[in-house]
Design a protein that fits this description.
Nucleotidyltransferase, domain 5; elongated; 29% helix; alpha/beta; 16% strand
Amino acid sequence: MIKPKRRDLQEINSSSMADIAFLLLVFFLVTTTISMDKGISLVLPADGNELEVNKKNIVNILVNESGKVLIDDKPVLIKTMAKSVEKLLSQNPNLIFSVQTHPLTKYQIYIKVLDQLKLAKASKISIANPPSY
């Protein structure tokens, strides 16, 4: 009787698998870029950079705790705020928009107001301290 030959099973050499995995990890960490565009982009002035500003060049934007917005004591909807700001900027391009919120104003409303100012291409935005209640 003829005995069938037994083949030895060939195994894959896995001693370098850890090296390959580490090299792939390093490669992807080095080549991946991290997006840092999230958040509000505001350019802050340098320390001690205080200037006297003419009162005619300041537009006060007040936001109460319920999300109602006043631009120079005139009520405005947040959705249509950009048009109002563009109109003001067309009359005087040197305007500074001073945003003042109530301490209980929701952060999302505050961000929407700042987004509308950015949408209207208002480049001079002042964040005023809220009054103490």
